[in-house]
Design brief:
Elements lengths: L2 E3 L14 H21 L4 E5 L10 H14 L5 E5 L14 H13 L3 E4 L4 E4 L2 E4 L5 H13 L5 E4 L4
Parallel strand pairs: 1-2, 2-3, 3-4, 6-7
Antiparallel strand pairs: 5-6
Helix pairs in contact: 1-2, 2-3
C-alpha cells in the first residue's frame, strides 16, 4: 500500500500576526515535515493527493526546495504520484502553476517514476483511483459517474471542493 499524503501547503505565506522570521520558520517547517515523511516511510510509492503547494503560484525557491526533497527520495524503484488540488490549478488554465512546473521537471528527470494526475478519474495503482480537483461541480459529477461505472473496486481518493 502506498503512503498517501495531502494538503502539505508548501510555500504558505501567512502575514497576519507573523514576522518575517516566523514566516520563514513556518515554510521551513512544512518542507521539513514533507522530507521527514518521505524519509520515514518504507513504502516504494508515495501519493500526494492535492495541495502540494499553498497557492497556484509560490516563490520559485519553494518549487526548487520541493524538487530537491523529491529528487533525493526518488531512488530507482520508487514511484511518486502527484494529484492536482484546488490550490494547484486554475480553471482558466492560461498560466502554468508552480505545481505543474514542479511536475514538468520531475517527469523530465525521473520519467515514469513520476505520475501526474490532473485531468480526471484515473487508476494510480492496484486498487487505488483518484479524482483530482475539477474546474467546477459539473466536471466533478462526470468524474464521479466514471468512478461509479468502473468495473473495478478499490479506494477512491478525492481532492475536490464539493
Amino acid at each position: 500500500m502506498p503512503l498517501i499524503i495531502n494538503d502539505t501547503h508548501i510555500g504558505t505565506n501567512r502575514v497576519g500576526g507573523t514576522t518575517p522570521a516566523s514566516q520563514q520558520a513556518l515554510r521551513e517547517y512544512l518542507r521539513d515535515n514533507l522530507s521527514s515523511l518521505l524519509n520515514m516511510t518504507n513504502e516504494k510509492h508515495v501519493i500526494c493527493n492535492g495541495d502540494l503547494f499553498n497557492a497556484f503560484s509560490v516563490d520559485i525557491s519553494e518549487v526548487l526546495a520541493t524538487y530537491e526533497i523529491f529528487a533525493e527520495w526518488l531512488s530507482p524503484g520508487r514511484r511518486l504520484t502527484l494529484v492536482c488540488g484546488n490550490h494547484d490549478s486554475n480553471p482558466r488554465g492560461d498560466k502554468v502553476s508552480s505545481f505543474h512546473t514542479l511536475c514538468f521537471f520531475l517527469r523530465a528527470h525521473f520519467g515514469e517514476q513520476v505520475t501526474v494526475c490532473d485531468t480526471g478519474f484515473e487508476k494510480v495503482c492496484d486498487g487505488i483511483y483518484v479524482i483530482p480537483h475539477c474546474a467546477n461541480q459539473d466536471v466533478f459529477d462526470l468524474e464521479i459517474e466514471k468512478a461509479v461505472a468502473s468495473p473495478e473496486t478499490g479506494y477512491l481518493l478525492l481532492h475536490a471542493n464539493f
